[in-house]
Amino acid sequence: MTPERETPTRERTPSGATATTRTRARLDQPRPPRRRLLPEWDPEAFGRLSERIARFLGTGRFIVWMTVVIIAWVLWNIFAPGDLRFDNYPFIFLTLMLSLQASYAAPLILLAQNRQDDRDRVNLEQDRKQNERSIADTEYLTREIAALRIGLGEVATRDWIRSELQDLMKELEARKHHDGHVVFPAERPHGRDVDDH
């Protein structure tokens, strides 16, 4: 009788399409951030900065400072000693700097205008909704006032009651003078549109 060899038990792993060779991501936790090659920035902060720059570019202070810098640049490069001049006439470096400033200023101004357009669009939408609510409220109040007028048309007013009492007093006075004593009418028709006899 030969001794039975014990074979090591191997866990059976699924194969094929159902096999999982990598660890499964947990769905109850956010993914770890991926590394990016490009730098990241906050679009809102960049937009606010562009609006500040565009606001400054549209002021008289910017024009005055830019004029002062250009005049100083030109005067320095004309009257300074030759070895201290850095941009001789025709001031090519100055032209390059002004072109660079303009090439950055134009997109910043456009970005600020786009943000302002977005804000204006949101404000217009809110104004439209507010106008719709105001119109609905006005229509509701108009209907309520019309209902009150209709209701008041059926209510006895002070003037109508006074006129009815005066008519009754006249009728009683007339009967008193006619017969010599007061007789109350047994039945008298009531209502606004009924002519009293």
Would you mind describing this structure in some detail?
- This protein has 197 residues and is an all-alpha fold.
- It is 60% helix and 0% strand.
- The chain contains four helices and no strands.
- The chain has helices at 43-57, 60-79, 92-153, 158-179.
- The longest helix is centred in the middle third of the chain and has 62 residues, at 92-153.
- It is elongated, with a radius of gyration of 48 Å.
- The model has no long low-confidence stretch (mean pLDDT 79).
Distance between the termini: 141 Å
- The gross shape turns out to be elongated
The residue fraction in helices comes out at: 55-70%
Structural class: mainly alpha
Which quaternary structure do these chains form?
single chain
**Major sheet details:** none
> What is the H/E order?
HHHH
Summed up, the helix count is 4
Rg (C-alpha, Å): 48 Å
Q: Report strand %.
A: under 5%
Secondary structure: number of strands: 0
Q: Give the averaged pLDDT, no decimals.
A: 79
Uncertain segments: none
In short:
The chain is mainly alpha-helical and 197 residues long. It has four helices and no strands.
What is the fold's blueprint, element by element?
Elements: H1 43-57, H2 60-79, H3 92-153, H4 158-179
Helix pairs in contact: 1-3
